[in-house]
Amino acid sequence: MAIEVTRQYLPLLEEEGRGAATDDDAGRDRHYLPDMPDEDPYQAGHRTCAGCGPAIEYRWVLKAAGADTVLAGPTGCMYVANSTYLCTPYTVPWAHTPIASGGSFTSGMAAGYEAMIRKGRHPGPYPNIIVMAGDGSAADIGLGSMSGALYRNHDALFICYDNECYANTGIQVSPTTPYAGLTTFTPFGKANTAGKQLPPKNLAKMMAEGHPHCYVATTTVGYPVDLMNKTRKGLNRRGAAFMHCYTPCQKGWVYQTSMTVELGRRVVEAGLFPVWEYDPEERKYHYFHPPVQRPVTDYLAMQGRFGHMLPEHVAATQRAANLNWQDMGMDVPAELREGEDPARHAKLKEESYSMPLNRGVGA
Amino acid sequence: MTTVHVEEAGGQRPAYGPGLRTPAGEERLNGLAGTRKRLNGCAAAAYAALYANVDVITAYAIRPYTAIMMNLAQFIADGILDAEYIHADGEHAQLSAAFGAGSCGARAFTGSSGVGVTYAYEMYSIISGARIPIQMSIADRTLDPPGDFGSEHTDALCTRDMGWLMGWAATPQEEFDKSLLAYAIGEDPRVLLPQMVVQDGYFVSHISGEVDMPSAEQVDTFLPPYRLPFPLDPRQPLSHGPQIHPSQGPPLQLERARAMEDAIPVIREKTDEFARVFGRQYPHFVEEYRLDDAEIAIVISGGHSVTCRAAINRLREQGVKIGMARLLWIRPFPSDDLRHALRGVRAVGVVETNLGLGGPTYGGILAPDVTAAMYHASNRPHITSFMAGLGGETVPTAEFEWMAGKLGQAVERGGVEKAAHWVGFED
User: Fold this and answer.
1) Which of A38, A150, A247, A322 is most buried per CB count within 10 Å?
2) How far apart are CA B277 and CA A81, in angstroms?
3) Per-residue confidence at A137, pLDDT binned at 50, 70, 90?
4) Nearest by Cα to A48 from A86, A75, A83
5) Neighbours of B24 (CB within 10 A)
6) Span A209-223, mean pLDDT?
7) ipTM score of the complex?
8) Chain A: nearest CA to B55, how far in angstroms?
9) Does residue A224 belong to the interface with chain B, where contact is any CB pair within 8 Å?
10) A143 vs B: CB within 8 A
């Protein structure tokens, strides 16, 4: 009696060989992308900042998903910067949701389409249903709603675009703000030299461990083909998928605007953002092993938000990165081990290559 | 490389047809048609959702409304109803999920009680402002503190200014009818507003009454398929809920205010249409009970009106010229109808089964609304209010008789003693 719900299949982009022909001098893949979809459901004309990481992520995700997509966006910088009444950058249906409703609103969209197609109210096919929630929404106020949606296994892709702060409200600390990251809620001073004192919440691992039936992946704007393929894998999978994407925020982190994609590579190469895929069929993590391993200072020094760091803060960050390398099943080179010793470091602001301190940031 | 495209709907809005019922569902509804069933208020609400063939149900457990969702879960388990049933992780998520489903064009049903209603508070303005006509079925419960299962109207009344249609049902039959009526009004393209169908916890939600079961055809005639004019559908992309500039605020807010006013004639029209299809004529907004020659009147809403009628009958036997005006809808507030109902009355007492702490009467929430509506009456009555039935306590006939005494005194002395009486705490 009920009508069968037909679902879309999105072919994966070839990854092997693409980079091999285009190695840069550091041995990294340069992604030459002649075969990307033409369509851009996320169009020009929005008001994101120069060098905006989330805008790059939005464009790749929607390019990968295509036109038969319904998109939700909880409150965050990408709500405010993208939507202006009587004007929109989206050529696919888009809805704003309250900041805590990313998971729950999207659950409703998925359930609505399941029921309407099954009951003959909508001809189908089942659209790609995507929510892109900031880290404040996904890891903080809307964590329960996001977890509820994954637990219920709605057929949708739940994305956290992570710029490691509440950027919309003027750069306040979020659970994914890194240790020692400066925000307007975690300034440094005489009594608190570190800025943020807590290590970040591991959102993606929490989602994978807590919802072992879901496809979960992490990626960054530094790896566009990986980002697009993980988007498609998440959408192709029948059921809930979660993708955690690292997206630099020029305004919040204070770096040169042309460095957004470079940061997306360096954070992985510094061991501070492991890129992996969790396969629910075999319950295994598959880690990406970057061809380059760097000391964390190569990453920290590019950003003003870390300019205040003292040797002990840098060493603690290197220690965290080294633990990440171990998690990823990679050897920790002696140079990086030695970086756990504060005596090996200078104050970051005294390094000639370091960005100036990020004081007085915020809207 | 391109992905699958769906053909454009030729500039037309995509059509959303009636939902298929399951074979077991059709069989059950055929068997029910024309029968009279003994149901409590919760079951009545659940049957209404079954008849309305809702697409998405979002549930979270809190007494006493839970029984609505328990009934619906059983309908789905038995194959009588085909709907997605979301076990939400809280009331905020419950309302958000119903909002998401409604935004895509699915008929969504949700509900709550007490602190569950207030936990979801952020969503009320957002859903009505988005003009997504989902339905929320509330069985009243006292807000904490104290921990109390009993009925008090404060939970739903807290949300009264958030742009939802809101009305109280006093019996299971009325609950069933009002649920269908509210969907028909809210989904009407001239209205497009979410609806709260409210009943007193326990007094209505858990006490059985007889409910006439219609045929599925009757319901389908009265309640056509839900067709949101602007669904989130890739066939006709559009954006919901963008940011605005302050200069765009006033016209948008005016539109929201007008939507409430514009609902008034539609409520009248649909109430009459309901009578033609189902044979039960309800007053549009205000039930007038023995008001024709009344000197004093009780204004009330919800289940305690049943006791109130009995008290009025007894007082009438003693020669007291008293009547009752029962509010069937509180939003939009029926100012005109209430003035008309109370046109000859000299003193009015509003029964407040709610708390309005620190408000203008230092009593409840309803009396200020009633007073504002009556202020412009040509023959303005004296108005007071009675705090009664708080925490889910009953309001026995003796208390209504005490209220009648206070109203009689107000007529005699030409003014009220105070704006709010705490019944049971005063002589």
Assistant:
1) A247
2) 50
3) very high
4) A83
5) 15
6) 97
7) 0.94
8) 6
9) no
10) no
Residues A148-176 pLDDT 10s: 999 999 999 999 999 999 999 999 999 99
Q: CA of A127, closest CA in chain B: separation in Å?
A: 8
Share of chain B above pLDDT 90, in %: 95
Q: What mean pLDDT do residues B318-347 have?
A: 98
CATH number of B286-422: 3.40.50.920
Q: What is the mean pLDDT of residues B176-203?
A: 97
Name the fold adopted by B20-211+250-278.
Answer: Rossmann fold (3.40.50)
CB contacts of B87 in chain A (<8 Å) are 152
CB-CB under 8 Å, A104 with B84: no
User: Across the beta sheet with A69-74, what order do the strands follow?
Assistant: A284-287, A276-279, A215-220, A241-246, A157-162, A128-134, A69-74, A94-97, B239-240
pLDDT at B2: 32
Per-residue pLDDT, averaged over B368-380, amounts to 96
Tokens of A141: 């106020």
CB atoms within 10 A of CB B262: 16
* pLDDT (tens digit per residue) in A20-57: 445 566 666 666 676 788 899 999 888 999 999 999 99
Evaluate if residue A289 carries a pLDDT over 70.
Answer: yes
Looking at this protein, which amino acid is placed at residue A197? Q
8 Å CB contact between B355 and B309: no
Quick check: A116 and B234 CB within 8 A?
A: no
The residue ranges of every structural domain in chain B are 20-211+250-278, 286-422
Cα–Cα distance, A255 to B2 (Å, whole number): 35
d(CA A143, CA A312): 32
Task: Tell me which residue of B350, B354, B294 sits closest to B326, measured CA to CA.
Answer: B350
Nearest one of B309, B417, B415 to B363, comparing CA atoms: B417
Q: What is the pLDDT of residues B2-38, one digit of tens each?
A: 333 334 444 556 678 889 999 999 999 999 999 999 9
Shortest distance, CA A1 to any CA of chain B (angstroms): 7
Note whether A38 contacts B: Cβ–Cβ < 8 A: yes
Pairing of strands A284-287, A276-279: antiparallel
Rounded CA separation A49/B353 (Å): 53
For chain A, what percent of residues have pLDDT higher than 70?
Answer: 92
Record the tokens describing residue A100, joined without a space. 């805590």
Is residue B145 reached through a cis peptide bond, with omega within 30 degrees of 0 on the bond before it? yes
Nearest residue in A to B249, CA atom: A85
Residue of B nearest to A62 (CA): B3
Q: Is A11 touching B (CB cutoff 8 A)?
A: yes
Mutate to test the interface with B, among A43, A77, A104, A146 (most CBs of B within 10 A): A104
Predicted model pTM: 0.95
Quote the CA–CA distance of B101 and B132 in Å, as a whole number.
9
Q: Could you give the angle at which helices A143-152 and A102-118 cross, rounded to 10 degrees?
A: 30
Q: Letter for the amino acid at B213? A: M
Contact B314, B403 (CB under 8 A): no
Residue A27 C-alpha from the chain's centroid: 24
**What would the DSSP string read from start to end of B59-108?**
E---TTTHHHHHHHHHHHHTTS---EEEE-SSHHHHHHHHHHHHHTT--E
